[in-house]
Amino acid sequence: MEHAARKLEPARPMVAVPVAPPVPAAPQPAGLMRQARRRFALYRGRLRALLLAALSLAAFVLAWHLLTKYRVNIYVRFINVPSPADVLDSARRAAHDPRFLMHLALSCRRILIGFSLAAVVAVPLGLVMGRFRIARELVFPLTEVLRPIPAIAWVPMAIMLWPSNEESIVFITFLGSFFPILINTLHGMAMVDPVLVRAAQCLGAREATIFREVYFPAALPHIFTGLTVGMGVAWVSLIAAEMISGQFGIGYFTWEAYSLVQYPDIALGMICIGVLGLGSSAAIRGIGRIVMPWSRA
Amino acid sequence: MLAPTSGVALKGLVEVSHFGLAYDTVDGDVEAVSDVSIHVNPGEFVSIIGPSGCGKSTLLNAVAGFLKPTSGTVAVDGEPVDGPSADRGMVFQQYSLFPWKTVRGNVEFGLKMKGRDRHNRELAARTLLGLAGLSQFENHYPDRLSGGMKQRVGIVRALATGPKVLLLDEPFGALDAQTRVIMQQILTNMWQRLKISVLFVTHDIDEAIFLSDRVYCMTARPGTIKAEIMVPLERPRQPAMMMSSEFLALRRGLMSLIREESLKAMGGEISDGALEGLSIDLHGQSLADVL
Questions:
Q1: Residue B107 · residue B128 · CB < 8 Å
Q2: B98 — contact with chain A (CB < 8 Å)?
Q3: Start-end of H helices in chain B
Q4: How confident is the model at residue A178 (pLDDT cuts 50, 70, 90)?
Q5: Which residues in chain A touch residue B58, judged by CB atoms under 8 angstroms apart?
Q6: What domain range is B257 assigned to?
Q7: Is A24 on the interface with B (CB under 8 A)?
Q8: pLDDT value at position B273?
Q9: Which of A122, B36, B99, B144 sits in a 20 to 30 Å window from A242, CA-based?
Q10: B chain contacts of residue A294, beta-carbon cutoff 8 Å
Q11: Is residue A28 predicted with pLDDT exceeding 70?
Q12: Would you say B208 and B49 are in contact if contact means Cβ atoms under 8 Å apart?
């Protein structure tokens, strides 16, 4: 107490006066300046992120260029690794090659079918399991046993199960995305605030309406998390399946490039997989933003 | 305190008689509320006040239809309560707006459940939102609203279906003192215009007196009714009344009632004597010396 008082005394001899608001004209330009500066800071933050992203990508390409140009060989061997220029070259050629485009289209089709099937099955199943205990207690143990098995481990079984390669690859893709979607939907249902359900009941909502108007929208953010994760795993599973059992697809293309000693095509295939994976995740996030305008995530 | 008769039969008579509620636990039944009889006349504003854990929210939840009484009955307009319904609107302490619906979407929800058409819903929602001073926020999502606004929307949403009685469970408990006073005025304004029965649960003595026609004071667990206090303050009420001698007398009376029960609720160890340091024998030394 005493200490504080002593400290204050020399600075402001009259305590009440300096607290009064300053001249009304003064804060106006100062406020505007501050606002402008703040806006700039916000804008700069975004700009900075973009610049840094470009910088890190450029640094990666540069390092890749240097490592391959000088054919660095320090335990890790860059002797046979294609240079960025080689890959760009083969990309230019591939862009006009109907075979390459068919590989891409086929992989996208498999993702679309496998992932869509997974979403169509896993989301309703998760909603029902989340709402009805009996369904949860019945199905959950089975999913918990099957979930740790990586989709790739299903490849031999899938080949036995399905009449054609195409179906077994779609099946693998389906399995890969199925569990993340299911688990996240379940989690979303578990996180539904019970007070929202009670509020709806007090407003005259019946069971079916509550399911549609409360549980479903409340679980949606988690469902979309599941879809995003599921999409990532779908690509992982698809590429593995294509490399093992495929005859077409971008995963097969990448593997075949190695066998055919078309080294630039290996990198081209990898980059295509990365870009497609990134694009499909972004697409899901975009759909999420449209479907859930209330969530700012 | 009766609502003015307007040709329509009075509605919103809440009758709770010999209500008791016990929870099953491993150690046997635990009685939360025991033999409570209260009523709310049509158009009356009644508060229930009591120490935390006294079962006042339990009682309210039973009127709402979320809990079934283990003994006694709960009825509204002579009809026994059987599950929640739009007849009994409720405002919760936790913000309970649907985050995926706009302010107007939230208010329209109950009307949608009633099958009203879009035009009808919009009109009703806009009118009520205007009454609560929320017109310019009708297209906002709840996460952009302040706590006070959220609770106002919650009240408007509960009123939109035209319930017989409005139940409020410590609705202003999470708000700061200034906002709380404004909310109380808004609530009384709306109540006076709509002539609806209100059952209001709170642990705030000023709030209970300021808002109510009658206040029930509950005992510590198991909750029973300890006292019923009439609040003869005139309406419309102004915050200035909280300084009147009449108000302060009511406040003093309720305070001592509640204090007794709060001490009981905190366990036998704390008594008024202990709080004042009188029951500790210091043998003539100062407390600092003993410690």
A1: yes
A2: yes
A3: 56-64, 103-113, 118-131, 147-160, 177-194, 205-211, 245-265, 272-276, 287-290
A4: very high
A5: none
A6: 14-87+163-290
A7: no
A8: 59
A9: A122
A10: 99-101, 141-143
A11: no
A12: yes
pLDDT (0 to 100) of residue A6: 45
Query: How many domains does the structure of chain B reveal?
Result: 1
| pLDDT above 50: residue B4 | no
Q: Provide the domain limits for residue A215.
A: 85-291
CB atoms A198 and B84 under 8 Å: yes
Closest chain A CA to residue B64:
A202
User: Which domain-ending residue is among A17, A45, A77?
Assistant: A77
**pTM value?**
0.82
Distance of CA A68 to the CA centre of its chain: 31
DSSP three-state, residue B99: coil
Q: Is A2 within the bounds of a domain? A: no
Structural domain contains residue A18:
no
Residue A10 lies in a domain: no
CB of B82 within 8 Å of a chain A CB? The answer is no
Quick check: B177 contacting A, CB < 8 Å? no
Cβ atoms B82, B95 nearer than 8 A:
no
Nearest of A224, A199, A208 to residue A293 by alpha carbon: A224
* A35 sits in which H/E element: helix A27-69
Q: Is B141 in contact with A204 (Cβ distance < 8 A)?
A: no
Residue A233, pLDDT > 80, answer: yes
Min mean pLDDT across A265-274, B21-30, B88-97 is at B21-30
Instruction: Determine the residue among A192, A201, A202 to mutate to test chain B binding: the one whose Cβ has the most chain B Cβ atoms within 10 Å.
Output: A202
ipTM for the predicted complex: 0.86
Tell me if the bond preceding B42 is cis, omega within 30° of 0: no
Chain B residues whose beta carbon lies within 8 Å of the beta carbon of residue A206: 113
